[in-house]
Amino acid sequence: MENQVIFLQGGGSGEDYNADEKLVESLKLYLGSGYLVLYPLLPNDGTPDLGRRGQIRRLLSDSADGVVLVAHSFGASMLLACLSEFEVKRKIAGIFLIATPFWQGNEDWVEAFKLRPDFAEQLDKKIPLFFYHCRDDEEVPFSQLDTYKEQLPWATFREIPTGGHQLGEDLSVVAEDIRAL
């Protein structure tokens, strides 16, 4: 039986989906056989706050017990929001978040993306939680990783020297952590 992995894209457009496809291919390559990597398209449906959370919630409901969740950028922040806001009935083997923004500020458009102040308390600390961030990320400031370190001290944090926002399209470090579960 194959282990089920769901990869959630960054952004909300087809262009973002296509860009992250290279990450998915890298993950598949480094995981090898024994893993079924699913990569559903999560389009921008015009409701960025509840829209993406709702899409992720439905995916989780339909997933197998023991699912591995991998998410990039916007998808990672929305997965974290979803896991802290909704009860998930499926057993999750691990959560792997890449270049995860920590939404801050008072602009109206940011409000829909922010985590609840108590988000960390709502997460199941028994589920392995990993964060990956390149120091030279040009889209999500590396300093945002420090905010997650403060909020989620039990998580594992991988600081990657170079690779930009897309980790150089090399998810070998993520695959290694997934295989170690």
Question: Could you explain the architecture of this structure?
Answer:
It is globular, with a radius of gyration of 15 Å. The chain has one domain: Alpha/Beta hydrolase fold, catalytic domain (Rossmann fold), CATH 3.40.50.1820. The longest helix has 18 residues, at 14-31. Strand 5, helix 6 and strand 6 (156-160) form a beta-alpha-beta unit. Helices cover 37% and strands 19% of the residues. The chain has 7 helices and 6 strands. Helix 1 packs across helix 7 (172-179) and helix 2 (50-62) packs across helix 3. The model has no long low-confidence stretch (mean pLDDT 93). The two termini are 16 Å apart. Strands 2-1-3-4-5-6 form a 6-stranded parallel sheet. With 181 residues, the protein is an alpha/beta fold.
Descriptive terms for the model:
alpha/beta, about 180 residues, Rossmann fold, single chain
